[in-house]
Design brief:
- The protein is α/β, with parallel strands linked by helices.
- The protein contains 13 helices and 22 strands.
- The chain has three domains: 215 residues, FAD/NAD(P)-binding domain (3-Layer(bba) Sandwich); 118 residues, FAD/NAD(P)-binding domain, CATH 3.50.50.60; 109 residues, FAD/NAD-linked reductase, C-terminal dimerisation domain (Enolase-like, domain 1).
- The strands form five sheets. Strands 1, 2, 3, 4, 5, 6 and 17 form a seven-stranded mixed beta sheet that branches. Strands 8-15-9-10-11 form a five-stranded parallel beta sheet.
- β13 and β14 form a beta hairpin.
- α3 runs antiparallel to α4 and α3 runs parallel beside α6.
- The longest helix is centred in the first third of the chain and has 25 residues.
- The termini are far apart.
- The model has no long low-confidence stretch (mean pLDDT 97).
- The protein binds flavin-adenine dinucleotide.
- Flavin-adenine dinucleotide (FAD) binds next to α1, β2, α2, α3 and β4.
């Protein structure tokens, strides 16, 4: 039996962050991965999705080049080349991750990890198995796409994100079931690549966890580009017809397309973990139950990332991996404030936010102040030719009526995901509008807009 101070099961962002952080602290660490190091994020999630969105952005930029006085013939699309570029980036990052783990002397076991009693992990690989005795264990087995009853995923005409990201040809038409972050990214990408796209969402609006004004901007922008948006619709099934799949709706209507993309969230993946003999408990939706330090019911066993009921984001997984290791090391780490984590959605226009929406802030704080400015009046946005969108800031209303601590920063527009940094810091640093307004924003930049909103909150707006 091999023994390690820490054994991490699952080599996605949450698991490898725990392994790297523990190794950096001097622990003897093992990482068990049944498929590919890097997990969903690297192979079928964040990286390939953003890479293909970039292909779509370049395609669009070339098509629109005439407005900048750059003459080009209309662009063509070579999906095989796009896929090769995507794969090249994944391979480079995967190899970098492997080297990093090796440099930190993390022992990597290939196989399925199962947690038994007494913090023992069995690694099964075909007929062989290795037994590991573990000082501590971190479970980081992630998630897999959810599917819908009545909608059979065949991997060709009806796909999830797993297959869509290996797309070999752009379909003439696509129906995206689900208007959350991933659904909106896919709808935007397919539309920019030339598909006729419809989005079906069961809730009353796209991007339901974003501020209402932000999702309204996305909806308007999608509609302007010809993306059909149906909200408040329930998908009841999907039929195969001679002309392709047809999605059936609860109201008796149906939508046909060449490709159906099921994007209705992800469910925790614990089936192969063998937890039965342990005190690790799952909740009613299958997530591993943890406390605020990611500790499970079994002493010395933690769970992090998509397998627990926290925002399913790679960077939240990183933070949880680091938190669990901090707790193992007895460093008294601060629990994660999930209400203030950064959210980034890479559709066009991009969306990024941290902290409370205006509605949530009103619910928690009663009276709040909110202010916004639009990119249509921002010089840099005009220069880059993307003037859709706005920056909105929500703050506490002080007893004298002035704006106090920032509670939420919400962006929709060009490069919003790259602009969120200062808003995220301001919210988490509990900065006030006045403190933020004093800082100088470089000119001309897109991020000036955030500074401008902070200034308006102090009543001393410069440009509006
Ligand atoms: C299309 C798409 C786009 C996304 N875009 C973003 C984005 O832009 N930003 C963002 O922050 N997040 C994004 N996400 C979410 C992000 O990918 C996940 O939140 C993140 O990958 C979760 O990390 P994890 O380590 O918890 O799990 P995973 O990445 O799912 O990794 C779990 C790993 O555990 C392994 N495993 C499972 N069971 C066992 C076992 N018993 N033994 C051994 N190994 C096992 C799996 O093979 C896998 O490698 C996206 C997801 C998708 C699908």
């Amino acid at each position: 039996m091999n023994s390690h101070q820490l054994v991490v099961v699952g080599g996605g962002p949450a698991g490898y962050a725990a392994a790297l952080s523990a190794a950096a602290s001097g622990m003897d660490v093992a990482l068990v991965e049944k498929s590919k190091l890097g997990g969903t994020c690297l192979h079928v999630g964040c990286i390939p999705a953003k890479e293909l969105l970039e292909t779509a952005a370049v395609f669009r930029t070339v098509a629109d080049a005439g407005q900048f006085g750059v003459m080009s013939s209309s662009p063509g699309l070579d999906m095989a080349a796009a896929q090769r570029r995507k794969q090249g980036i994944i391979d480079k990052l995967a190899s970098g991750l492997g080297s990093l783990l090796a440099r930190r002397k993390v022992t990597v076991y290939s196989g399925v990890g199962r947690l038994g009693t007494g913090r023992a992990v069995e690694v099964g690989n075909g007929g062989d198995s290795v037994e590991l005795a573990c000082g501590n264990v971190v479970l980081a087995t992630g998630s897999v796409p959810r599917t819908l009853e009545g909608v059979e995923v065949d991997g060709r005409h009806v796909v999830t994100s797993d297959e869509l990201l290996s797309l070999e040809e752009v379909p003439a038409s696509a129906v995206v079931i689900g208007g959350g972050a991933i659904g909106c990214e896919f709808a935007s990408m397919l539309s920019d690549l030339g598909s006729r796209v419809a989005v079906l969402e069961a809730l009353p609006r796209l991007l339901a966890n974003a501020d209402k004004e932000i999702s309204r901007v996305v909806k308007r922008s999608f509609a302007k580009r010809g993306i059909e948006i149906r909200t408040d619709v329930r998908v009841t099934g999907c039929e195969n017809t001679a002309d392709g799949p047809r999605v059936l709706l609860g109201n008796g209507d149906s939508v046909s397309a060449e490709l159906v993309v099921v994007s209705v969230g992800r469910r925790p993946h614990t089936e192969e973990l063998g937890l039965d003999a342990t005190a690790v408990r799952l909740d009613s939706r299958g997530y591993v139950e943890v406390d605020e330090y990611c500790r499970t019911g079994e002493a010395g066993v933690y769970a992090v990332g998509d397998v627990i009921d926290s925002p399913q984001l790679a960077h939240v997984g990183f933070a949880e991996g680091i938190l669990a290791v901090g707790d193992i090391c007895g460093e008294n780490p601060l629990p994660i404030d999930y209400s203030n984590v950064p959210w980034c959605i890479y559709c066009r226009p991009e969306v990024a936010f941290a902290g409370l929406t205006e509605a949530a802030a009103r619910e928690t704080y009663g009276d709040v102040v909110a202010s916004k400015h639009r990119f249509s009046s921002n010089g840099r946005a005009m220069i880059v030719g993307e003037t859709e969108g706005l920056a909105k800031v929500v703050a506490v209303r002080n007893p004298d009526g002035s704006a106090g601590q920032l509670l939420g920063v919400h962006l929709v527009g060009p490069w919003a995901t790259e602009q969120l940094g200062q808003g995220y810091l301001a919210v988490n640093w509990e900065a006030t509008a006045g403190e933020v307004a004093r800082f100088i924003q470089p000119h001309p930049t897109l991020s000036e807009l955030f500074g401008e909103v902070a200034m308006s909150l102090t009543g001393r707006s410069l440009h509006g």
